[in-house]
Amino acid sequence: MNIVLVEPEIPYNAGAIGRTCVAANAVLHLIRPLGFSTDDASVKRSGLDYWEFLNVRYYDDYNDFEMKNAGACMYFATTKAKYNYADVKYSEDDFLVFGKESAGLPEELLLRNKETCIRVPMLPEARSLNLSVSVGIVLYEAMRQNGFPFLKTEGQLKKYTWD
Q1: What are the CA-CA distances from residue 92 to residues 65, 72, 74, 100, 147 (Å)?
Q2: What share of the chain is helix, strand, coil (3-state, %, to 5)?
Q3: Which one of 22, 43, 118, 163 has the lowest number of neighbouring Cβ atoms within 10 Å?
Q4: What is the CATH number of the domain that holds 92?
């Protein structure tokens, strides 16, 4: 899976999303301009010690991203979409595209891709979800549909004894 952040602004969100990408074996695509430096301590703090294991790719702008990923299947997350994210059938190499925290994705991009715009359902009074939460929701639905490839799906409790 591929997570695309178009002009992300908040370092804590990028760090948390980077950590989620590592845990889910997803590639993170960051499209400039970024509202932070990836050397920023807050990005690394949010990503904890996962950032060094992150498969991250950088692009100068959205045109650069499109050119380097021509023909890829992309879904655009927006509160303006008519389609529910859970109704889409994802494949393992899809790109899930998210906009910046303050404004979302550019309207012209959404209009060009109306049929692949998706939304997370929420109450009408809710303006939006946090970016890192939205990424986690959509990414893990896509991973679930594909059987969580390469991911550990079972845990084990340790046996504790009381003295």
Answers
A1: 19, 11, 12, 24, 10
A2: 35, 20, 45
A3: 163
A4: 3.40.1280.10
Tell me the per-residue pLDDT of 44-74, one tens digit each, with 9 for 90 and over. Answer: 666 557 778 999 999 999 999 999 999 999 9
Domain enclosing residue 90, as ranges: 2-145
What is the identity of the amino acid at 35?
G
Per-residue pLDDT at 152 exceeds 80: no
pLDDT at 140 over 70: yes
In angstroms, how far apart are the furthest CA atoms of the chain? 65
The CB density around residue 72, as the number of other CB atoms within 10 Å, is 14
Scanning the chain, the segments in alpha helix (DSSP H) are 11-24, 41-47, 62-68, 107-112, 131-145
Which pLDDT value is given to residue 39? 73
Flag the least confident range among 17-31, 38-52, 87-101: 38-52
Whole-angstrom Cα distance, residue 29 to residue 77?
15
Within a domain: 97: yes
Cβ proximity of 13 and 106 under 8 Å: no
Kindly tell me if the per-residue pLDDT of 17 is higher than 60.
yes
**Is position 161 within any domain?**
no
The structure tokens listed for 11 are 């370092």
